[in-house]
Amino acid sequence: MSAATETYYDRRGILQTLGRDGLIQIILILNTIVMLGPLVIMFFAAFKTNAQIFQSPFSIPDFSNVANLVKIWSETNFLRYLINSAIVTGSSIVLILTLGTMAAYGIARYNFRGSGFVLMFFVAGLTLPLKLAIIPLFILMRDLGILNTQLSLVIIYVAMGLPTTVFIMTGFIRTLPNELEDAARMDGASEPRIMWSIMLPLVRPALVISGIQNVVPIWNDFFFPLIFIQKDALKTLPQGLTTFMGEYTTDWGVLFAGLLLSSAPVILVYIVLSRQFINGMTAGAVK
Amino acid sequence: MPGSPLLARRLWITALIVPPLAFVALFVVYPIISAFAYAFFQWHGLARGEFVGFANFYKVLFTQPYADWTANAFLHNVLVFFALMVLQNGVGFLLAYCLWRELPGAAFHRVAVFLPVVLSTIIVGFLWKLFLHPLFGVVNISLRGTGLGGLAQPWLGQDTTALWALIIANAWHMVGFPTLVFLAGMQRIPGEILDAVRMETESEWVKISKVVWPLVAPSATVVFTLLFVGSFNWFELPYIMAGVDGSPHKATDVLGLYFYRTAFGDQSGSGQDFGAGSALAVLIFLFIAIVAGFITFRLRAREIQI
């Protein structure tokens, strides 16, 4: 084979690579425009009047015109809904991580008869949708007298979050080395003390993953508040959003401002912690 | 430790395991078992009546108008599943393959594609409902602005386009999820395998179909199963964008909406029937569990250990 043909093939290789990488860049850039475009339009529209939205939906608005945002803040229960969401989500996460770690620690660190069965029991509910048990849950909450309370939501979210949390935490806690634990046991430390002072600090990364995996679906949930909560003062953010979206149907600037304010907390946290969010939310799906 | 260390240890394990176990038993296992039991009873509002055997199942499957509603909603779920298989999982695979090359900017595109995934379905639903508004929505405004006014239509208001509009909104919302699951799968493919392939072939297609695709089989299993469960559980997006009645003319009705209406009543609040609702829930539940189990089992079989 002559030198000339070799260069020819080499060059073709480079051109092909350039062409292929160019195509890939174009696909990625177009996709990012499709992903972010709608959110940018929403962001702009939140600062516009109806007429501006209908005539020039893509134009950059005058950001000092915050009338729509003020209206949401002062005329709706937005702040109340936001606080409710924070209370419900916060308590649910604390309970999920506490109960989930307890169960996972028990299953992963101690050999006892039936531990395999106990794990199976938790994991069985992993993919089965609890939504379909909503009728019995509704009746159960009524019988417990907690319909129309935030407790009913917290309970259901903990029930929903425990299976995956126990699954992930058990896997993680099993990988921790025995040496530290054994040394502490030799020194006469009690089992609770070993768990609390020695093992739990090592579990932190898995707690972050589990926390994020649970926080997004709970913060965003709409179905269970729809069934359990009727009182306006107790509504969570997604549910409250449906309330004021219904009230301001003709005032599009206010509608977009409502969507912007509701999505802002999650978007801001996501931008700061995107790696943790991505790892956490795909944790159950990526081995 | 004073006393009996064995007993203390047993108590300690019990204290760890029993509270979470009791919680799951009471609020997951018991409701799911009850859901099955409830389907065999007649219901008067919120009060359970007499045992009626399979009458509720017979009612929702074989008597009119329920039978038609059930079939209509079920077929829509099937369509949603296959459409999203292409628009969400297929596109997700393609995007993952593009991100995998780690060209400049890939980190930014990765964050961007996942951004909608963290948003509430309620926000996404309202956003697209406003965008698709026949007169003032940005979609039709853009079409008119670029001389394509003939294509402008009431996307959510006509039978032919409404369900597809919902499907596309869903794909926009969730495409980042399969993308990043596939990407994680691709990143686990060992470099030696890829080098070996590069020696053998120049064709990108051969590389994708014969090497990458088989090696990301574990990601595919997860993503397909989750999409299946999600498609047959679809509720929030159609509820927000099309309403609880699956308008227009039940063109967007899916099992989730139909179940909700049957159990808790429609827009007017009438027609609440916990018996028929429970029967529907049991049928959907069994269908999802059996098919998801089957999908997982079949797809696991084609996974290769690297």
What does this structure look like?
- The complex is a heterodimer of chains A (287) and B (306).
- Chain A is mainly alpha-helical.
- Chain A folds into two domains: 3-63; 76-247, MetI-like (MetI-like fold, Orthogonal Bundle), CATH 1.10.3720.10.
- Chain A has helices at 3-45, 50-55, 67-75, 78-109, 115-123, 134-143, 150-174, 179-186, 191-220, 223-228, 237-247, 252-272, 274-281.
- In chain A, helix 9 (191-220) packs across helix 13 (274-281) and helix 11 runs antiparallel to helix 12.
- Chain A is globular, with a radius of gyration of 26 Å.
- In chain A, 41% of the residues are buried.
- The model of chain A is unreliable at 1-9 (pLDDT under 50).
- Chain B is mainly alpha-helical and 306 residues long.
- Chain B has two domains: 5-55; 65-301, Orthogonal Bundle (MetI-like fold).
- Chain B contains 14 helices and two strands, in the order H-E-E-H-H-H-H-H-H-H-H-H-H-H-H-H.
- Chain B has helices at 5-38, 55-62, 66-100, 106-114, 121-131, 138-145, 159-174, 176-187, 191-200, 204-215, 217-231, 236-241, 255-264, 274-301; strands spanning 41-44, 47-51.
- Chain B has a two-stranded antiparallel ribbon.
- In chain B, strand 1 (41-44) and strand 2 form a beta hairpin.
- Chain B is globular.
- The mean pLDDT of chain B is 91.
- Chains A and B meet through helix 1, helix 4, helix 5, helix 6 and helix 7 of A and helix 1, helix 3, helix 4, helix 5 and helix 6 of B.
